[in-house]
Queue: 2 jobs
Job 1
Amino acid sequence: MPSGKSFQCDLVTPQRILFSGEVVSVTAPGTVGSFQVLYNHAPLLSSLAVGKVILRFSDEKESLYATSGGFAEVRENKVVILAETAEREDEIDVARAREARDRALKRLKDHAAEIDAARARGALVRAINRLKVAGAG
Ligand code: ATP
């Protein structure tokens, strides 16, 4: 568990600010793999996959978010995560995510046109990620 110096982190979507404050660690789902940022991290710009963002605080507490897409920028002890969508684990609507998952699975089984299949796969990955972050099956 990291307990180093703290630095500023903003987690935002085009719609809202989910978090703005001091953290000791940020873990984010980079498109080439998940990465962790600690105090004095080198400058970094990464695109983000569907996955989870973990913020850790100096009191050893942490917050978990389901995110999809976007970018992360690390510069001079400031991290900005601009995600296409983000929900904190306790605000995920599990029933909605299950419905989205089942709808996407049905579309894929029905052999929808290729463009719809790509959309359905994206929806499926987002729904499964939300269920995982919410700790639901
Ligand atoms: P759905 O088909 O249920 O809308 P989706 O994956 O197509 O799912 P997105 O386009 O990723 O939805 O998100 C649209 C908006 O709805 C975003 O603001 C996102 O945070 C929110 N959202 C989507 N699913 C959930 C959920 N299960 N719980 C809470 N918020 C959600």
Job 2
Amino acid sequence: MKKQILVTGGTGYIGSHTVVELQEKGYEVVIVDDLSNSSIDVLDAIGKITGLRPAFEQFDLSDSIKTNTFFDKYTDIEAIIHFAAFKAVGESVGKPLNYYRNNLNSLMNLLDNMKRRNIINMVFSSSCTVYGQPDVLPVVENTPRKQAESPYGNTKSICEDILRDCCKAYPQINCIALRYFNPIGAHPSSLIGELPLGVPNNLVPFITQTAAGLRDELSIFGDNYNTPDGTAIRDYINVVDLAKAHVIAINRLLNKKRTSNYEYFNIGTGEGYSVLQLVKTFIAVTGVNLAYKIVERRAGDIEKIWADTSIANNELGWKAETSLGDTLLSAWNWEKKVRGLGN
Ligand code: NAD
Ligand code: WQD
């Protein structure tokens, strides 16, 4: 019998890529998304890539009544991948209650139904943001978490705590939290990718929009960090590689291979690249001459972080496969497709 997987936030950036990978591995998916940060058209795109348009329900998961009604209707769910959350770091500083309400209530409503209906498996979207600026690099899973810089980051830390405590109190429940580093890129089909609303906050969408002529130039935030070229370092993970980690995590839960009923893994490449290195790689692989200037540091930014991925590599048998160059090219191909620019 096919296993039905609930993917919350499944029309979003990482969720949509994960739905593709799940369907390609034969899983039956139902998506819940309120479309607060994504488009219904994504369902057609997933249908084009996989030959199957997933089941879809549109509602806000922070609404407990609607969430309960959903689970009354869908009684064959074996596992949940919970992507749905607000994720804009800057916005969360000005609207903390929106972030706490949305991100915490959605998780608690799901856990409540898991407990009551004996749905025992969840994969949760966590973030490297829980580490803050680590004292030692690369970060391993037991590197101490630091006080979050933003309400958004704090929701990820609190959600991890909620999962840990629920797994302890309800031993039938099994959760895997995946701590993503910086997801970038798009599906090789260029049918799905990242579509930020308004001016992008994140580096790669800003670069591709600048290259496409929507922005005049990229501002590089600071070149006086303690790094080889002075610009900040991150671990940029290809979104399809990241999506595959979710399928592996689901297999692990369904095959009961875990070592404890609450596990958490770093999902990155294990390599750090500076902003300038990334910009230069983008120019090299696309041949587009990108205008950029150095400006002041951005408030709240950390200097450098990258993952130690050995636990994910050894325990999950997962490894990032796509090069930074190929990933940036996929992001550019997607941007061109969205903007109707030819090859
Ligand atoms: P996204 O905004 O593209 O996708 C999230 C989806 O959830 C959107 O489609 C949105 O409409 C939906 N959603 C939000 N709140 C909802 C609610 N209450 N009910 C129903 N649907 C709701 O974001 P993404 O980049 O795909 O991120 C997915 C997850 O990964 C998020 O939890 C995010 O915090 C986490 N994460 C993202 C990054 C990143 O840089 N993109 C890094 C680390 C962790
Ligand atoms: C990357 C680097 C910027 C834009 C954010 C969240 C984090 C996680 C991942 C969800 C930094 C620099 C950026 C620009 C620049 N998300 N930059 N010019 O800040 O590492 O992480 O996404 O959990 O919580 O904070 O990602 O893409 O914004 O920035 O120079 O126009 O690019 O300063 O060094 P960040 P980012």
